[in-house]
Structures are given as structure tokens and as C-alpha cells.
Amino acid sequence: MHDHHHHHHHAGDTPEYADLAVPDRELRPLDVSRRRFLRNAGLLGATVAGAGALGAGTASASTGWDGPGRYQWLAGDHHIHTQYSNDAMYTVEQQVAGGVRNGLDWMVITDHGYLAHEKYAVQQTYADVLASRRKHRGLLLWQGLEWNTPAAEHATVFFDCSRDEAQMLQTFERLFDGNVNGTNPSSPANELIAVQGLRWLDQQVRAGKINSALFLANHPSRNGRLSPHELRNWRDVAPHIAVGMEGSPGAQADSTPAPLGNGAARGGYSNSPGVDSWPGYPLELYRTHGGFDWMTAKLGGLWDSMLAEGKGWWITSNSDSHRNFGDTLTSPSPDADYNTTGKHLDAVDSGVRHSWADFRPGQYSRTVVGATDRSYRAVMDGIRNGRVWVAMGGLLAGLEVTVFSDEGGWPVTLGGRTTVRRGGNVTVLVVARLATRPNAGGSIPRLARMDLIQGMVTGPVADRDTFATPSVRVVQSFETRRGFVPVAVFQHTFRNVRDPFYLRLRGTDGNFHAEGSIEPRMDPAGGVDPWSDLWTYSNPIFVDVR
């Protein structure tokens, strides 16, 4: 059982150091230091109607600084398909232009590994990617791959841009893709091939053949194929490449009820255990919970059990766009054409709005990354270091999280790690910028509650197939209220810290919960309006004890 007793604080309870109506002379020395940090980081704004207003910071900071104001927070999507996937239909430019219209700063094209893709499509895709880069100078655009990970599920793989990026991608696909090499079935031998693929990527980085590489597991619970030990093996063999998983899958429009949609399972999570599924999982894994994958949504579940080891494992959220909800385009190209060319013919307008399963890139979910600058390397480093929060349906306009130790030193933000002496205190300051404009569903979403979650760091597990940890709880729930300033400020102090822990955040519009609980509900099989059940999650911050 998890402790769900929690306190409610309102957005108006602004900490004194964030309220400029309180003069410096009335603050404790530690709070003066906190105020100075916020002001220098560009986070401290004017006081309006008695509530401290905090805005997004853009100021640069000194070398040791790791507060949120040091970074540009860039929204993106690392899981997007085009006509170069056997089951998708859009041109690269159609997907890119759609993402730009929806406010994305970065995108990764991830067409499926496939015999025809490896043989024909990689170089064709690269030419289209180069053309879109020239057309959209402000966008960071990668060509990646949805890797059929041997013995497992799918994953995004992409490289830092270099002269040979397409050739390296094609070589990786030829050597290690499960579809290309027939290594998809679950077996210890095929699990080893997946590990070898990650080691190969690591070798290319070490040899300077590629500058940087990332691996992120896609829709991890959809078929129950990713065992806990596989996730841990990937993380441990290549910790700077295999860094995380999709916290929520794409295909969120799949659940839209009739008559507009097909009322299928949210995220396409409608499966049951199969011959390649890991047998230890409960049936609830095969469904989404508040639109999020069970591995992430389950308090004290698999994600928490990995974090409890004290190692980073980060979450993202993406569109997995193949065919977009409400679109009138349709593909005229039969599969035989794709198998001989690696490309579907350009989509044509059918004049009929389709209830496809996907939203356009950036239309519904986004992955927001803290980057030191607007560059390929900086976004990849931000993902690698866990400076990431995710949200659905425009539930948040911005999220800034800062953790202070009472013994001084630099503050840290998402993905960071701080140290406190045993018995000391640690304070977390949360600045949530609330939505003020309608989302693509036509409404202005409202953040009703933000939960602060604490998990104890207990060290490496004896059984690498562990998928639960008991020492996780919601320590405080903050309720928001609408005011003149569209910003909610929360704080919590962990006092007399004795043991290492991590903290993370989860927010909701408050419309649906599991019965008798504040936890997200299992999404109903009959479909749900995806705009009516919105959640946001942050990646963790770790606290070590000295």
C-alpha cells in the first residue's frame, strides 16, 4: 500500500522569498540567497494582487549553475513517421510543417526498420530531411530510426548530425534491426543482439565516427515485451545512449469515441499477453492509465523501481504520427509499391475526414527539453541528462523546478542531483505556467492539481526483473486556483533528511481518477475523449545524503 495522505496548498501561498512585497531585510539568510538566485536567473517577476509572479527565465548563468533559468526549454517530438514507413503516408515536409505550426522546436523522423526501408528509403529520406532543414531554419530536425529492437519492442535511435549520418543509420539498421535480420522473437540470444547494437553505437561514438547517439524505448508496455531486466541491461551497457522510454505513447486519438472516432484503446494499448510477452506482468500493464504507459503511471511501479537504484531513466511523450485524426488525405499506394521502392506514393485528398489514431506532431503531446542553446548537441544533452518534462493537450505552458539544499551550493533542476548533510533540509520550488490559450481541442485546459512524489533510493536490485518498489508516496498535493497571474508557485521542504531519495512531479486536470484515489484511472476500453483527461509529468531530481 502507498501512503496517499496529503496536504492541500493553494497557488496563493507564495513563499516569502518569491514575493517582492517582502523586503530582503525580513528574510532569513537562506531565503535571501534563494531570492538572489531567482532574480539572477530571470525567474523573479513583479508582485501582482498579492501573489508572487514567476516567469520563464532565459538568462545565462555561471558554470556551476543548474537552475531552470540556465536553459532554453524547447518542445519536440522524437517519434514521427512518413511515407518511408511501410504503414504511414505523409511526406517529410508535411510532417515537419505540421510540427512547426504546432510550435515544435525540434523533431526526429523515425521510419520503421524494414527490408525495403534499409535497402531503398534511408538515403531518399535523408534528401527530404535536408530539404526541410533548409526550408525551416529555426527547426532542429533529425533523421532517426524506429528500431525493431531484437527480442523486444520498438525504440527511437538517432545521432548527432554529421556528414555520414544517413550512412551510419543505414549500417546500424542492416546490422541490428529485428525486421531486417529476423531477430524479433523473444529469446536470450536475440536479447544479446540488442545489447550488441547498443555497444556498437557506443563504439562509434568513442571512435569519433558519430558525435552523439540516443536510444529511447517506444510504447514500452503495448505488447508486454520489454522485461524489466532488458530495460536495465540497456541502461547499464550504454548509459549515455540508452537513457529512457516513452512515458506516454502516441496514438492518443485512437480512443476518441464515436461518432467522431473509433472508440478504440487509448494509445493503441488493447493487447493481451502473447508468446513473446514477459510473463511476470499483470494484465493492467496492457492498458494506458490517464493516457500514460503503466510503467510510468503506476506509483511505485517499474519506472520508480529503476529510479530507486539511484540511476537516471527518463521519460518522454510523442505523437507516433502515422495517419492523423481528422485528416482527409489517404495513401494511394499499395504495399507492393513500398516493397519495391521503400516509399509510398504521395497521399491524395479523399474529401472524407478520417478517424485515424494519431495526432499531428505537437498537436497533443510534447517533450520539453532544457537545452543550453538551440543546437542539435544541446537538445540531445538535455535529453541525456533528464532535463525533460512532458504534457498532454497544452495542460501546462511551462514548468520550472528548482531544488535547494540548506547548506548552500548551486540549485539543481530536472535530471539533476544535489547533496545534503544527514539531518539537513531540502526545498523544492515549483513554478507552473498555466495555459492561457485554447489547445487544439478547442478549450483552455486547467491544471487542477500538482502532486509532489518522493521515492527512496535503495540501491541496485538483487533481482533485475523487479518492477515495483514500496518506498514511493505522494508527499504533498498542491491545488491551483485561477488568478490574475497565470502562474502557480508551490514549495515543499523535506526536513531532517536521513536517507537518499528522488522527487518528481505529476499534474492533472482533475477530471478522472481511479476510484477512491488520486491516481490516474485505467483508460476504459470503450474510448475516452483524450482532451478531457490530461496529465503532465516531470523527470526526477536526486538528493544524495552526506
TrEMBL record:
InterPro entries referenced in this protein's UniProt entry, alphabetically: PHP_dom, PHP_domain, Pol/His_phosphatase_N, Pol/histidinol_Pase-like, TAT_signal
Domain Polymerase/histidinol phosphatase N-terminal: 76-151
A Pfam short name: PHP
Bias-annotated ranges (Basic residues): 1-10
Residue numbers spanned by region Disordered: 1-20
Molecular-function annotations in GO: 5'-3' DNA exonuclease activity; 5'-3' RNA exonuclease activity
SMART domains: POLIIIAc (SM00481)
Entry-linked Gene3D superfamilies: Metal-dependent hydrolases
Protein name: Polymerase/histidinol phosphatase N-terminal domain-containing protein
Organism of this sequence: Kutzneria kofuensis
